[in-house]
Write a structure and sequence with these properties.
Elements: E1 4-9, H1 13-25, E2 29-35, H2 39-49, E3 52-54, H3 57-62, E4 68-71, H4 78-87, E5 91-95, H5 102-115, E6 119-122, H6 129-140, E7 146-154, H7 172-175, H8 177-188, E8 192-200, E9 211-218, E10 223-229, E11 239-243, E12 247-250, H9 256-261, E13 276-279, E14 284-287, H10 295-305, H11 315-334, E15 338-339
Parallel strand pairs: 1-2, 1-4, 2-3, 4-5, 5-6, 7-10
Antiparallel strand pairs: 7-11, 8-9, 8-15, 9-10, 11-12, 12-13, 13-14
Helix pairs in contact: 4-5, 5-11, 8-11
Domain GFO/IDH/MocA-like oxidoreductase: 131-248
GO molecular function: nucleotide binding; scyllo-inositol dehydrogenase (NADP+) activity
EC number: 1.1.1.371
């Protein structure tokens, strides 16, 4: 069986360091081409990636050899590009955030359904080591019943490029909020019921969000908080999870991204100094972080396309995340709690 040919749309940070790299590591996938509007970038693509350099999405969709289109483009064009690719008979993986609102999400889902093609969202942080560790602690019962969890991702300063423009879907709310909302929903595995959000835009030279706080309540009585900041020089814990038996606290980010940018994702190792701690009210102990594995996303895509496995990031879960994001935007605009 020949490998599935993949074309990546966009060769910025996500297309270069994430998608084209990880596709190249997945057995059963072949990096067939990359699209860029910039002639110099296309020269670099041919030289560095040894694949076809397309001028744009239209050229990719005309290529019958392409099986799977990966959208590493600005978030604001994901819906339009995904629908066009699906209608052209291609499978699609889109970088997160999937799109900008629930209406766009439903358009994408309808296109996947009518064309009977795969549509999957790149939620690589379901394979972060810290997320997998929290999931294990919840499933093993060490935390007890978890009814409160806080996830934070913070930094200092506005982003540049298209991620620094609100009209393109830039800002931490969309980019990182997509990860944290997805992690909250998949860890709780209970329907979200209400959403409240506060957004701030305090940068002098940028219209993207500087602060975002999303509060989600679940049908099982749990509360999840996603705290995003571009004006925090001192970070909060990445995970703070309160259970009836213990509390788990974990700082820092998964090491895979730095290792991947350096060219060897398999060298990513978290040091003991970064391990989280489990507190039971009397004592605390260090919890070794489980190894993360971003490779698993595209390996699962390959297995699914070959008919050997269900897709891990389901459309049902992706739509649930977009429903929360959509409700959060409405809440931020009105100042009211939105009931789903």
């Amino acid at each position: 069986m020949r490998p599935f040919n993949v074309a990546v749309i966009g060769y910025g940070f996500a297309g270069r360091c994430f998608h084209s790299y990880l596709v190249g590591l997945a057995p059963g996938l072949k990096l067939h081409g990359i699209a860029s509007r910039d002639p110099q970038t296309r020269e670099r693509i041919v030289r560095d990636r040894h694949c076809i350099a397309y001028e744009g999405l239209d050229d990719v969709l005309k290529d019958d050899a392409v099986d799977l289109v990966v959208l590493a483009s600005p978030s604001a064009v994901h819906c339009e590009q995904a629908v066009a690719a699906l209608d052209a008979g291609k499978h699609v993986v889109t970088d997160k955030i999937m799109c900008l609102n629930l209406e766009e999400c439903d358009q994408m889902l309808a296109a996947a359904e009518r064309n009977k093609k795969l549509l999957a969202v790149f939620q690589n942080r379901r394979w972060d080591g810290d997320y997998l560790t929290v999931k294990h602690l919840m499933q093993s019962g060490e935390l007890g019943t978890v009814r409160w969890m806080e996830l934070a991702w913070q930094g200092f300063g506005a982003w540049g490029g298209w991620r620094g423009a609100a009209e393109m879907g830039g800002g931490r709310f969309f980019d990182l909020g997509a990860h944290l909302v997805d992690q909250l929903l998949t860890l709780q595995n209970s329907p979200a019921e209400t959403v409240y959000c506060r957004l701030r835009r305090d940068y002098d030279a940028s219209d993207i969000d500087s602060e975002a706080l999303i509060v989600v309540t679940f049908a099982n009585g749990a509360t999840g908080i996603a705290d995003l900041s571009g004006m925090s020089a001192i970070s909060k814990p990445r995970f703070r999870v309160h259970g009836s038996r213990a509390t788990f606290v974990k700082y820092g980010l998964d090491p895979q991204e730095k290792a991947m940018i350096a060219g060897d994702i398999d060298s990513a190792v978290e040091t003991p100094e970064s391990y989280g701690t489990l507190h039971d009210g009397k004592s605390e102990r260090q919890i070794t972080t489980l190894p993360g594995r971003w490779r698993s996303f595209y390996e699962n895509v390959t297995e699914h396309l070959a008919g050997n496995a269900p897709i891990a990031v389901t459309l049902e879960s992706s739509r649930a995340g977009m429903q929360v994001i959509d409700a959060a935007l409405k809440s931020a605009a009105t100042g009211e709690v939105v009931r789903l």
